[in-house]
Each structure stands twice: as structure tokens, then as C-alpha cells.
TrEMBL record:
Family indicated by similarity: Belongs to the bacterial solute-binding protein 8 family.
Record keywords: Signal
Protein's UniProt name: ABC transporter substrate-binding protein
Span of domain Fe/B12 periplasmic-binding: 42-308
Signal peptide: 1-19
Coiled coil: none
Length: 308
């Protein structure tokens, strides 16, 4: 894929070309003013999606730590990832975060700034550490996911680090791939099955699956839900009878949450085994991390489009 070449170029450029010097800047992020005195040199990414954005921008050498890996790292990023200290399997504590002497913290989930994790963003700011949060996870009024929104986030982060050109190149590649992805859903119904067996958690409105459904012309059977990831039930799912089932492959939950284990459940459950999609094997597997706003969201479009 062209994306891989962009990643490799970005990774090489991190060693060959230093960040463009930048004056102190202030940005508005999720309603909070972040004062950034210089391009960060000791950044911490709080979970995989933030990590892969920084690595894709060739910034491994300017990362003091990472945490909360949910899927195997993209192959093109593996060598760069191997050089970044892993602070915790899940979220590191506030003490662990401060121990690394960070000059920037980046998270794609509000939970990273809980008291038992990195701590509130205001507290970090009081210590002189800008704490960036994805626009899709703001503490109040998070934005609904759009591809333009994740592209804007990538470019903003690149600008903060003084590597604006890398951000533009990465986004241009993502836009080209998105434009080339098929859009042949023709209104076919789809269930986005994220996790759970006794209670299935599925995709509703406002998230990455909703944007992918719109892009591919699919009809999400839970589009009427008021939440991004509502709890469904199998009888209701059977009544809605999706033509396709997109299954999230989650490694963080262990074998019980892998795509294969969920597909086996659907095949043996008395209710879901009768679904045409299950009997016909119309499953499309995607990495769980690609269904959260990330560098992988465009690849999820490609995977689902290819599986229709």
C-alpha cells in the first residue's frame, strides 16, 4: 500500500531531518488552552491510537513513553515502536507519567486523564505539561467522528511537533486511499459487533462505524441508537436481520474477545445461528483499534469495502 511507503519515509525523515524550529504557541484543545513553548521532545502517548499517529509522523525519537496497546502494532511501525519505552500494559499512573519528565501528553480517550491514570488535564497544565485530547473524546461535547476531523487532528499534532510537512503528506495519502475505497454497499444492512456475548456492544451513531457506513452506502441496524456504542440484545439483532456482520478483533480482552471466538459464538448461539448472515458466513473482521478514531480508520473502510 502507498500508506506503508509514507510511513517509511516519515520514519526515516525523523532521523535525517530535525523538527522545524517553532516559536511558543497556544492552541485550543477541547475547550482548554494549551501553551506549547517548543516542539515536544519527550512526549507520552497514552494508548495505541495516539502512539501510531506519532509513529506515523516519524516521531519515535521524541517519545518518552507509550501505553495501552490493544492490537499488534502496524508492521511498518514495529521497529520504531520497539524503541519507545512502554510505561504500562494499560494506563500508567500519574506518578509514572511524571517520572518520565514529559513535555507533552497525547490521548485519544478521556479515560487517560482520570485520577487513577495520568490525572486531570488541568493538573498536568499546572505542572507545565500540555495534555492534548482527541476532539472525538472531549470531556464535554465531543465531536462526532468524521474523516476530515481525524485528518485535521493529525495535521494539528504534526504542527505542534514542528513537522507540518509530514502531517500534510500523511493526510494526503489517507485522503487518496479513502477516495479510492469502494462504495458498493447499496444500502445493505450491517451489524457492527464490537464486544460481549451475553450483552453485545454494537456501534450506534457518531463513531467511526457510522462514518464508514455512510462512506460505503451501508445501513447500520443500530443507527437509531442514541449512543456511539450502545448495548444491544440478540433477539433485537435477529429481528433486524443484518446482511453483514462486521466483527471487531480485540486482543486486549483475551481469547474471549477475539473475532474468531465471537464468530463461533454467533454460530452456536440458538438465536443468532438462524441469521442468514451467520449461515452464509457474511462476516467481515477488522482490528478493534480501527473502529476508534485513528490512523487505521481508513484501512477499516478498505477492509469492509473489500468484504462486501
Amino acid at each position: 500500500m502507498a500508506f506503508i511507503s509514507v510511513l517509511l519515509v516519515a520514519g526515516c525523515s525523523s532521523a535525517a531531518a530535525p523538527a522545524t524550529p517553532a516559536a511558543a504557541t497556544t492552541i485550543t484543545n477541547c475547550g482548554r488552552q494549551l501553551s506549547i513553548t517548543a516542539p515536544p521532545e519527550r512526549a507520552i502517548s497514552m494508548e495505541q491510537n495516539a502512539t501510531e499517529i506519532l509513529l506515523s509522523l516519524g516521531l519515535a525519537g521524541r517519545m518518552a513513553g507509550t501505553s495501552y496497546q490493544t492490537d499488534p502494532v502496524l508492521p511498518a511501525l514495529q521497529s520504531a515502536y520497539d524503541g519507545v519505552p512502554v510505561l504500562a500494559k494499560l494506563y500508567p499512573s500519574r506518578e509514572k507519567v511524571l517520572e518520565t519528565r514529559p513535555d507533552f501528553v497525547y490521548s485519544t480517550f478521556t479515560s487517560a486523564y482520570a485520577p487513577d491514570a495520568a490525572g486531570p488535564r488541568a493538573d498536568l497544565a499546572g505542572l507545565g505539561v500540555p495534555a492534548y485530547l482527541s476532539r472525538f473524546a472531549c470531556e464535554s461535547q465531543p465531536q462526532s467522528f468524521t474523516f476530515d476531523g481525524i485528518f485535521a487532528e493529525i495535521e494539528e499534532v504534526a504542527s505542534v511537533f514542528g513537522v507540518k510537512d509530514r502531517g500534510v503528506a500523511l493526510v494526503d495519502d489517507q485522503k487518496a486511499r479513502l477516495a479510492a475505497a469502494p462504495s458498493s454497499g447499496a444500502g445493505a444492512s450491517v451489524l457492527w459487533y464490537y464486544s460481549g456475548t451475553s450483552t453485545p456492544y454494537v456501534a450506534g451513531k457518531g463513531g467511526v462505524p457510522a462514518a464508514i457506513s455512510d462512506r460505503l452506502g451501508l445501513s447500520n441496524v443500530y443507527a437509531d441508537a442514541s449512543e456511539t456504542w450502545p448495548a444491544g440484545n440478540w433477539e433485537q439483532i435477529a429481528a433486524r436481520d443484518p446482511k453483514y456482520i462486521v466483527v471487531a478483533d480485540l486482543t486486549r480482552g483475551g481469547d474471549g474477545d477475539s473475532a474468531q471466538s465471537k464468530i463461533e459464538f454467533l454460530r452456536t448461539n440458538p438465536v443468532t445461528s438462524k441469521l442468514d448472515a451467520v449461515k452464509a458466513g457474511r462476516f467481515i473482521t477488522v482490528p478493534g483499534s480501527s473502529l476508534d478514531p485513528s490512523i487505521r480508520s481508513v484501512s477499516a473502510v478498505e477492509l469492509v469495502g473489500a468484504g462486501l
